[in-house]
Amino acid sequence: MKNSFSITLGVVVTSAIMFSCKQEVSGSGDAAPVETMTSGNLTLYVDTTAQPIIEDALAVFHSIYPKARIKQVNRAESEVVNALIKDSANVAVLARPLTTQEEAHFTKQGITPRVTFFATDALALITNKKSTDTVVNLQEVYKVLQGKPSATVKKLIFDNSNSGTVQLLLKQAGVTKIATTDVYSLKDTEAVLKYVHENPGSIGIIGVNWLVQPPLGWEKYVENVRVLGVDNVKIDKSSKKYYKPSQSNIAAGLYPITRKLYVLNYQGKNGLGIGFETYLTAESGQRLILKSGLVPATMPTREIEVRSEL
């Protein structure tokens, strides 16, 4: 279960969803509803780093559309991709589109994907509060990933060797395999938080959304870790400025470890995948993302009423 927080959402009004609502077939008992954009059954595979925000979004989506039954399955990035290729899933949430090679399976079937960007996420570098460090140079992190000794980074802790978190940093570091020394992959995000909580001097790497919305029981871990500031040599070659993964820094491109989140839809029909995607990208869904600590794809509008007093 996740920490609850108050969210005021309006009704999602889009022509696609209104059209699908008219097509819903009313059922009785436990019979599965006919699949439309707002009803039916769907298994949604989700990269674990995006787990918190999708859980929140599905809770609201289900409250608006009670005939929709979307089952969320959280897996590491490579497992989500394999599920799509093996047809175990046809809708997923990932931090990247599929590659041309990965999409070949669907190309042969004549299926054109719907790939929809809905939010920008960031990877947070965390350490124990007992550590005196408040910032870290990204190049030192890259050295460890490359198997080179670092003067400041002694131990990197990831959530899973197959996760998108690992793949993103490996790509940035210019390597394809994890170094065999000073880099450790654990079971999941909770294990990373617990390890950093118990081991000062280590640096954990997790999705920032987990820190903003930690599940119940994680508070003691989150309260005992510090988010490190990270330099961005692309905008400051002197490396004298450090940025934390705040929404403003992510949106402005100041924080250097960010990634986009997408809904990948390979259903090949107007089903629940399009319905949920439409909700996420509509204003109410984007407001939910804004409150989650991530950066929405489109900034929700805010109306201000100006009153003149005579």
Automatic annotation (TrEMBL):
Alphabetically ordered keywords of this record: Signal
Keyword Signal: yes
Domain PBP span(s) in chain numbering: 35-283
Superkingdom of the organism of origin: Bacteria
InterPro entries according to UniProt: PBP_domain, Phosphate_ABC_transporter
Stated name of the protein: PBP domain-containing protein
Phylogenetic lineage: Bacteria, Pseudomonadati, Bacteroidota, Flavobacteriia, Flavobacteriales
